[in-house]
Structures are given as structure tokens and as C-alpha cells.
Automatic annotation (TrEMBL):
<keyword id="KW-0238">DNA-binding</keyword>
<dbReference type="InterPro" id="IPR036388">
    <property type="entry name" value="WH-like_DNA-bd_sf"/>
</dbReference>
<dbReference type="InterPro" id="IPR000792">
    <property type="entry name" value="Tscrpt_reg_LuxR_C"/>
</dbReference>
<keyword id="KW-0804">Transcription</keyword>
<feature type="domain" description="HTH luxR-type">
    <location>
        <begin position="127"/>
        <end position="192"/>
    </location>
</feature>
<protein>
    <submittedName>
        <fullName>Helix-turn-helix transcriptional regulator</fullName>
    </submittedName>
</protein>
<dbReference type="Pfam" id="PF00196">
    <property type="entry name" value="GerE"/>
</dbReference>
<keyword id="KW-0010">Activator</keyword>
<keyword id="KW-0805">Transcription regulation</keyword>
<dbReference type="InterPro" id="IPR016032">
    <property type="entry name" value="Sig_transdc_resp-reg_C-effctor"/>
</dbReference>
Amino acid sequence: MESTITLAFIDNDRFFIEGLQWLLLAYFSRRGVQVQLLDAAQAHRADMVFQSVERDWQARFCRCSVSGSRPINFALREPGDIRWRDKPRCISETGVIFRNDSPDSVVRQLDLALAARVQSGAAHRCHWCERHRITRREQDVMRYLACELPQTTIARNLHLSVKTVSNHKQAAMRKLGFKRNADLYHWLRMGGLKTVERP
């Protein structure tokens, strides 16, 4: 195991995250591994990512990872959130931690994840990457949205109708799992567009 590991947490429940951080710091300290904590904006550089996932949604970690990186990704879910199990999983999801899991259960998952990381081979693209790729035109629209330009200006610059721009934006939001405009704009401000590969 490396002598330093970087961890990132993407969750609004600070109380839960502080408890999880305390558990992880103790876990790695016992193994002689130093821990560096990264904020959500730097999660793409982390060795291990813990990210909350909305109820009934699938985690789509492969949509967020930088090309060539292989972080260990854990989805953080509410107790009783199980309907997502009927759908294909993201191949980049290492495991699921429920908010009511015992510390022993979390430690067992860490042990399994770290053991599997040593034995893992090359990464493959998963169901969510292949079926929900962002098109070139959707990326063009999002690039202008990242500059906070109005849709009328985007339409004029791309020689499209305002309705077509809106359709591209909605399609990209659906593929990325965003239900609200505010979530998309926050993701764009945090540099999320850099994590989306061109098809």
C-alpha cells in the first residue's frame, strides 16, 4: 500500500462526513499511511472518493473520473435506498456505504476495496459511459453555459435555434443525472466539463 492516500468527500451532510473522516484517519493511521483530504473540486485527483448519490439513482463515477485515473469510489446512500439495485451499476463504483452502516462494516469494505485494487486490471467503460455519452454539440452548448452566456447568445454563436440549444442542454442534464439547473451550473463552475470525454 502507498505511504500517502488522498481522500475526497462529496456530500452535504457534514456531520456524517466528519465521522467518516475520523474513522478513515484512524484506519489508515494503523496501517502507517498518511492521509491528505481534498475538497470536492479536487475529487478528480483523489485516490478514494466518497460521494452521496440521490435516492433511487445510479452512481456514475466513470462520468467524473479523469482519463487514466482509477480511484476507489464509494457511493454514500440513505438507509432503505435499494431501488437502484435493479439497474446496471457503474463499473467505477467500488462499493456502497449506507449512512447507518457500522464502523466495522465500513472497515470491511475498505479492506476488500484495497485488496481488489491491487489485483485489478485495466478499466473498462460501463453501461452509463457507453449509453449516455455527451455529444459534441451538447458539449459545445455546455461550454457556452459555463461562460454563463444566455441561451439566445449561444444559439446565435452556434447558428442554432434557441429551442435546439435548450434541447441539447436538457439532454446533457439527463445524461449527467442533473434534475435542476443550479446543479448543472455548479458542476460547470467546478470544472466538471473537463471530465467529459468527447465521443
